[in-house]
Amino acid sequence: MSELLISQYHSEIAKYIQYGGDKKETSIRRAFANLLSTYCKPHDLTLVDELEFTTKLNTRVVPDGTIKDALRLTHGYWEAKDESDDIDVEIEKKLKKGYPSDNILFEDSITAVLLQNGVQILRVSMKDAAALDKLVRRFIEFERPELQTFRQAIAQFKQDMPEVLHALRQMIDANQISNANFKTALQTFLKLCQDNINADIVLDDAREMLIQHILTEDIFNTVFGDTQFHRENNIARELQKVADTFFTGSTKKNTLKGLESYYGAIKQSASGIANHHEKQQFLKAIYENFYKVYNPKLADRLGVVYTPNEIVRFMIESTEALIHQHFNKLLISRGVEILDPATGTGTFITDLIEHFKHNKDELAYKNKTSCTAMKSLFCLTTLPT
Question: What is the largest CA-CA distance in the chain?
């Protein structure tokens, strides 16, 4: 099978050159991207084009491709160069600029070079099918130390979460009996939810929301490094008031001690993400993983199961196609109003803004983004919809 894949790559690149009459990197790199994508599939990895990356030198670079998994963790980078370039000179330039060297593949359609942990591991002729297959496999199958740490943290998290949940629920039960401030704050929060969200919310729902808030606050702050959401969002702010009546200082530290490795692994993985939209997607993936362990059934009831991005994009693009077909308009067109009655985590809003950002109509874009900005304050609030 691998020989067939390499053969298909050679045929595809020959077709690009034949039809385009050009061997420049920008004209032919799609062939190698297709090859990498095929190797990624059995490992549940995806090649993402031109994703911005913040280097250790605090510079921003954009590799031609980044290998990602379902949790949006990075497994490697690919950089294509022109055949006329001196590949060694280009590699040196990229490394001096801050490109990561823990797992990066350079190629110019003639030679492929693989660097891992800062050392050149393989250099092969791309005409040698067996050698190229070996290099690509080693590139795709490489696991960076932080990924190993993250997987270990997830495994530990699955073991420790039930004990942490048990301790929290016992603590809440005790405070409902003996802590007047806690009881008052919880009742105030419950009434806020009933008045503003759903009259059917009961005390047990409010308790579970409190537990979710306590367990996920550090995740949110770790990824974004900002507590503004919890200060400005009404629901999050009231939840924090309830938590502050009993869950502070050593109580908080000792209770969540079992999850420290999980939070630490998230922080380490998130540290290299510069793009705000990418951070949102990373956080979304982390939350999905978190609630699969925490309580999948309750997560579904409380509206914290997220619509997959692939489905969101399909819905946005298909809706726009229908609007164009029947009304000769686009979603960004003036006069087209977009309503999101169950904003939840704001997945649709953030994807819409990404969908709009390349539009040439600056006024229309500003109008759309200003309309959605108020709704985005409700993003990441785990509430019934």
Answer: 80
The letter for the amino acid at 240 is Q
Task: Tell me the domain boundaries of the chain.
Answer: 2-143, 146-282, 309-378
Q: Is the full-model pTM beyond 0.85? A: no
Report the C-alpha gap between 33 and 40 in whole angstroms.
10
| 3-class secondary structure, 82 | coil
pLDDT of residue 384: 34
CB 122, CB 105: distance < 8 Å: no
- Token pair for residue 262? 């999980």
Token pair of 126, please?
A: 């791309």
Domain 2-143: CATH class, spelled out: alpha beta
Tokens of 23: 């061997």
Q: Provide DSSP, 224-252.
A: H---HHHHH-HHHHHHHHHHTTT--HHHH
* CB of 51 closer than 8 Å to CB of 64: no
Q: What is the pLDDT of residues 27-72, one digit of tens each?
A: 788 889 999 999 999 998 999 998 887 777 778 888 999 999 877 7
List CB contacts of 55: < 8 A, sequence separation 6 or more. 61, 97, 98, 99, 100
Q: What's the chain's Rg over C-alpha atoms? A: 25
> What is the DSSP code (8-state) at residue 42?
G
